[in-house]
Write a structure and sequence with these properties.
121 residues; mainly alpha; two-stranded antiparallel ribbon; 3 helices; 2 strands; TVP23-like; membrane; transmembrane
Length: 121
Amino acid sequence: MDFWTVKNITGRLMVGLRWWNYVDDEGKSHWVFESRKGPSQNRINEREARIFWVALILTPLLWAVFFIIVIFRLNVETTESFSSVTTDFLRKQVLQNAVSFVTREGTTPQANPMSQPSNTI
């Protein structure tokens, strides 16, 4: 949603940029880039354009900072290593699946009422 909004709305209204891609009859991809020129260029508010570019650049940087903070917090706050936690989790899951498989074999399978064909919509 953010990409679509930036590409189709804010990019066009705030800074006068527009682009799209189309494929011709031979299957070749064509990219079209447009920008406002001439008298329509004066309709762009300098302050709004600055807000657009700053937000466009700072948002991914902010996400990168959040990612780095979370990685460091994960390393500092955990007393166990990540590999031992994942190994223990996988070991438990395999054991649970094996137990459920063994106990399920002795019982008769029940018919699923949804598997029966019907004409009801």
